[in-house]
Amino acid sequence: MTTHDPLATWDSARRGRSGPATGFHNVHLSERDAWLATTIAVAFHALGMVIEIALARTIPGVSTKSAGISAMVALLLLVVLLIRRKTPSVRLASVIYLVTTVSVVTVLLLTNLQFAVLERNWQPFQAAKLGCLIAAMVAPGFWIGLLSILAYFFSALLQFELFFPPEIKAQVAASEPWPMLAFALAGVLALVYRFRRVQLEQEVARIQADNFAIRQLAYAFLNIRDLMNTPLQVIDLSVGLLRRSNDPNKLIIDCIDHSMHRLREINAVLVQHEREIDWQAER
Amino acid sequence: MTKAAARIVFLDDSEDLRELVPILIESLLGEKCRSFCNLMEFEDHTEEVLHARVAILDINLGPNVPDGVEAFRWLMKHGFQGKVLFFTGHARTNPQVALAEKNGVAILEKPVHPDILISFVKRALNEAA
Fold it and tell me: Which residues of A lie inside 8 Å of B (Cβ-Cβ)?
């Protein structure tokens, strides 16, 4: 009969159960982090629309209506985020983030061509490019961030390819869509880096929690061993004395000896893990 | 009747061990062994303890009392000339015990076979002679 190592068995089961995270793309932010990120994104949305309105008002012919509606949407979302801040949820944060992305993309689709035609020094698709980078920094989830970056990129690309007249393309955006593609790729890379880092942080936290748990278990074993050793020693010495007595019952003493041998094996298993513990000086 | 001074002193909080260890030592080595339950008892019998050749010390002597390491320090402070043997449940995990071991103090981890305990005590007596 072999002696099983309970700690090793437990450790093995634990590794099999939790294991390393499957990939950065499946990493979930905490409810609070997702909520905060979405709040920043929506605040940026609201601020961006105010700037958009201010810019549009300086250029006759550019409508401020869509930006105004989008700013109202952003304010409404901010109110929801503030009201629900005590009970944050990743799912609701993701929905709000999607709404804010759709709202911004819609405004850009409606105003890009107007800016391209009416503003003399219009820099093509600056807002969409900025959107790609912001999404990488504050999206509440990897897939939602990727979707947001793709929305900014493809909405601008399709608008540029399908709806921009050739003379406007040549006049204000001759180098597009390559700069736009570069921003989208930069956004994706930044998003991957961010979620890879979150994955590593979560992995470190998980390992620390596991280590804490196993140390607690090892301390429990240590205490058990400490309590067990003196009675074992008493039995051992008693058997030794009985064996040397004038009338030793060898059969009974051998039975006690066998049990002592088994208990020593268990003790040896506990000793093995006890030595892995960093003892505090005060113990 | 004059009692011969014990050449071995034993410090342990277990009453059973305080009974058994002297019996074992006396029956197998023919040496007297005197048991004590804590450092205060050591202090009450300072002369007898300091004249012993071997001191066997448990580490954990119960809650809120000085432990075996404190007893070891007390012995060193009072110029104990004999050999010290730690006899304890989880010896080497205590850094102070590990340090004492590096300085030549023998350590026995409970539970130990009676023959091993006797051989350690015998060796300590020979070294202290």
Answer: 222, 225-226, 229-230, 232-241, 244, 260, 263-264, 267, 271, 274-275, 277, 279, 281, 283
Per-residue pLDDT at B8 exceeds 80: yes
Q: How many H helices and E strands in chain B?
A: 6, 5
Q: Token match 């449940």: residue?
A: B89
**A94-to-A91, A134, A238 alpha-carbon distances in Å:** 5, 15, 71
Among the partner residues B24, B92, B110, nearest to A232 by beta-carbon distance? B110
C-beta atoms of A233 and B24 within 8 A: no
User: Would B1 be classed as within a structural domain?
Assistant: no
Name the region of B79 (left: φ>0; alpha: ψ -120 to 50; beta: rest).
left
Q: Quote the number of domains for chain B.
A: 1
- CATH number at B60 reads 3.40.50.2300
B87, part of any domain: yes
ipTM at complex level: 0.84
The answer on pLDDT for A46 being more than 60 is yes
Instruction: Write out the residue range of the structural domain in which residue B12 sits.
Output: 8-128
**Beta bridge partner(s), residue A64:** none
Res. A76: pLDDT tops 80? yes
